[in-house]
Task: structure prediction
Amino acid sequence: NSYLGYDKSSDGFAVVSGKGSTWNNSKDTYVGYGGKGDLKVENGGAVYNTNGYLAHEKGSHGSALVSGEGSTWNNKGDAFVGHKGKGDLQVDNGGAVYNTNGYLGSEKGSHGSAVVSGKGSIWNNSNYLLVGIEGKGDLQVDNGGTLSSETGYLGYDKSSDGSAVVSGEGSTWNNKGDAVVGQKGKGTLQVDNGGAVSSANGLYLANAEGSIGTINIGGEASGSARNAGSLKTPSIFFGNGEGNLVFNHTTSDYLLSSDLKSTGSGTHEIRNISGSTRLTGSVSGFTGRTNVEGGSLTIAGRDVLGGSVDISGGASLDFAPTAAAV
Result:
């Protein structure tokens, strides 16, 4: 094992810089084990280990920057960002991080933050990515960065708070399987300014009782409208918690093709606050409340909109010629 910042009062720093420069650890790398640790991998440098930890113990602080084309942090196992302490991961300017499972904010009181920024910048999780397991996790993908996982979770356990923002043209988060926004805790996903999130099997919103799951297309409900991003998934399943699908955007003709289904007994809500939104998937399985507070919402599928509807503030609810009424 290798350690940067082992004891509480310690401060450890390492730079791996330049093509052909490598730091090879046969076991684990701890950046901020009990104290403060900083790792920089830049200009084509590379770090290899089994598991990587940023901020392992309570009160620790660990940060890693992987920057520049060809710069890589290669974890054969898992990457922990904020295990018990405060961890920060930044991948930019074409850098890349690879691991099996990724964890942000693992234990109670922890805080893990990750930013993947810039064209060619990659964080590849070959299995799970959990943002906010028992602690707090923040994730941002912007300026053309790429994030991938088999299954992604925001707000995994009861005490957790996991959020993700995918923003900007070319910025993507691709889930090869499922995505869950609010498994048992609080999860928030925002997609804006041309960013894209995909989930091949489906997206689950507020899965368990007591959970809160929110998807913001454009801006959050309490904020200003923003240009929309895209959400590509066959179905959005509203579960046993509080599930919210919010459209607060400036796009003139935003299309969501996912089927919307209430599969649990929680509180489910669709809100169109700003912008022109078209729902082209099946909506008859949605049994919650649809609030059209601004802009326009068009039901463009061939079936009935389930649940109840409230229209206010001069907004409009429209039905395409092939769609049924409420």
Q: What stands out?
A: The mean pLDDT is 96. The first strand starts at residue 2 and ends at 4. The two ends are 62 Å apart (CA to CA). The CA atoms of residues 14 and 212 lie 40 Å apart.
